[in-house]
Specification:
The protein is of the alpha+beta class. The protein contains 6 helices and 15 strands. Strand 7 (about 220-230) and strand 8 (about 235-250) form a beta hairpin. Helix 3 (about 80-105) runs antiparallel to helix 4. About 25% of the residues are buried.
């Protein structure tokens, strides 16, 4: 049975008028933006395009449309059709009840002609019921999407004063043609690149430290871990982040690190950051002595659209205290310790279609501390906030 829920029956419409230099090119770009947002083109009449966009992606689509040119006007409206949906559901309930009564009447029909009349009446009620249920489904589909009316206005070209050249063919040449006669035609502008990127996660981490506090004796811990990386990338900007981990099992484990550096991006899918910072960490029970640290990290974020996000990092660290973490560097080594790791963020596991709505985050890390291997597995939630 379809039920009318007032919160789900608010139908929204937005109108955006944009002044563009190329009408057809802008229409193709708007259609591509709608596809990327999970929507579709409904109708097109010249420069007026009507799209149906999922409500959760409407803001993203509006930003993409605004990049097409100069926004002239923008408006929005909504229509509450909850009462209409309630009337349809009431009519559907009444039709079902009436049909049940007619079924009983048909079973008691005294003659074939009476049974035929009941059959005809049942067919009429079935048609009315199907119509009511179809209209209810249509209302629900409309409520889940925003109707976007994009009006593309082509910029008027001001006429240049006419000059009669001595040779007619000179009128077909431009200054660039004369300077670079073999210059290829310029390619169409690609999709806007990444201007900023944020990766955040909160997870449960299982960790194993091999051969500590004694050879052939492993230590294990369960931690709550918070990780954040952010970068401005237009084209190079400030990047920052922090790590915080706290927990225990075989002893008490703690890690706190802060980072600052530079970030950049390539295309609309790849983000790279180089960070330096300061931190403190330790593991009680003579496993890892407390020490101040100077970490350096190279991290990358690879955005895969609706599929999710892949993140990877490499983090060498230098110890400053506790006898320079008891050992210092070994032969041929540069840093006292290091960690390598990666994770995948999957929004579709939670029923979402974008990383900024959150998703399941699965990660794995390997490192060495005091020349002992450290293995970690992370399971939690993650978010990605990508700006173009």
């Amino acid at each position: 049975m379809l039920r009318a829920e007032s919160a789900l029956f608010l139908i929204r419409e937005r109108v955006v008028a944009v002044l563009v230099p190329d009408l057809d090119g802008a229409a193709e770009a708007a259609t591509a933006a709608a596809r990327d947002a999970g929507g579709s083109l409904q109708t097109r009449n010249g420069g007026q395009l009507v799209f149906a966009i999922p409500e959760a992606r409407a803001g993203e689509f509006a930003r993409r449309v605004a990049l097409l040119g100069e926004v002239q006007r923008e408006s929005g409206s909504s229509e509450d059709v909850a009462f209409r949906a309630a009337d349809l559901e009431s009519a559907a309930r009444a039709a079902r009840a009436r049909r049940a009564e007619l079924e009983q009447l048909r079973a008691r029909a005294a003659s074939a002609s009476d049974g035929l009349l009941v059959e005809q009446r049942i067919a009429q009620i079935d048609a009315a019921l199907a119509t009511a249920e179809r209209e209810l489904r249509l209302l629900r589909q409309q409520a889940l999407r925003v109707k976007f009316v994009v009006e593309l206005l082509e910029k008027p070209v001001e006429p240049l004063p006419t000059v009669n050249l001595p040779f007619p063919w000179l009128a077909t040449l431009s200054g660039q043609d004369l300077a670079y006669p073999s210059r290829p035609e310029s390619e169409a502008d690609s999709e806007p690149g990444i201007a900023s990127n944020v990766d955040m996660s909160f997870s449960l981490e299982g960790r194993r430290l091999a051969d500590r506090p004694a050879p052939d004796e492993d230590s294990r811990a369960l931690l709550l871990a918070l990780r954040l990386r952010a970068a401005r990338t237009d084209p190079v900007g400030i990047a920052a982040g922090y790590d915080a981990s706290l927990g225990g099992f075989d002893g008490f484990v703690y890690e706190f690190r802060g980072f600052l550096g530079l970030g950049t991006a390539a295309g609309n899918w790849f983000t790279l950051g180089l960070l330096g910072g300061v931190g403190v960490s330790g593991w009680t029970g003579d496993r890892v002595p407390i020490s101040l640290e100077l970490p350096v990290e190279l991290f990358t974020l690879i955005d895969l659209g609706a599929v999710g996000r892949l993140s990877m990092f490499a983090q060498p660290r230098w110890a400053l205290t506790s006898e320079a973490r008891r050992a210092g560097t070994g032969p041929g080594e540069i840093a006292h310790e290091y960690t390598l790791g990666g994770a995948v963020l999957l929004p579709f596991v939670f029923g979402n279609d974008d990383v900024d709505e959150g998703g399941l985050r699965l990660g794995f890390e390997y490192g060495e501390v005091l020349e002992s291997p450290v293995y970690s597995v992370n399971v939690g939630i993650g978010f990605g906030f990508l700006g173009h």
